[in-house]
Recover the amino acids of this structure.
C-alpha cells in the first residue's frame, strides 16, 4: 500500500513524500539499499535501484516513483530536477509463527515488516553540501 502526501514540516511545501506501509521485509535489509540512494537525483536513484541485485529494491523503486509522480502531479515539479532528500525505514509489525521441530517442540519464526518513507525535493531548494553518506 503506497500513500502520498505533501510534507508540511518546517513550512517547506516543496518537499513531497510517499509512504509504503507493511512491506514484508526486514528493515535492516531495506536500509542496506536505502543508504545507496539517499541524496541522489531521481534518475540516478532509478538506475541504481533497477540494477542492484537485492529483493528490497523493488518496493523502494515503487515508492520513489510514487513520490516523483506525486511531486509532478500535485506541485508541478519536473522529475528531472528532483532529488531524494530523505529516506526513512521504520520497523512495522512482526508476524510471529512457530515451526514444528523434533520431539514435539516448536521454534519461533519472526516475519518482520517495515514502512518505507521517501521524501523528494526540487534540486534548487536542496543543500548540495550534505549528502547523507556517513
Amino acid at each position: 500500500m503506497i500513500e502520498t502526501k505533501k510534507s508540511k514540516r518546517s513550512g517547506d511545501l516543496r518537499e513531497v513524500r510517499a509512504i509504503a506501509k507493511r512491506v514484508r521485509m526486514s528493515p535492516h535489509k531495506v536500509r542496506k539499499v536505502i543508504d545507496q540512494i539517499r541524496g541522489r537525483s531521481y534518475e540516478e536513484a532509478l538506475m541504481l535501484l533497477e540494477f542492484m541485485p537485492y529483493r528490497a529494491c523493488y518496493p523502494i523503486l515503487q515508492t520513489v516513483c510514487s513520490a516523483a509522480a506525486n511531486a509532478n502531479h500535485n506541485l508541478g515539479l519536473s522529475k528531472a530536477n528532483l532529488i531524494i532528500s530523505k529516506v526513512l525505514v521504520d520497523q512495522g509489525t512482526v508476524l510471529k509463527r512457530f515451526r514444528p521441530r523434533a520431539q514435539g517442540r516448536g521454534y519461533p519464526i519472526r516475519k518482520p515488516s517495515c514502512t518505507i518513507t521517501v521524501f523528494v525535493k526540487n534540486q534548487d531548494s536542496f543543500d548540495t553540501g550534505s549528502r547523507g553518506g556517513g
Remarks:
- DSSP finds three helices and four strands in the chain.
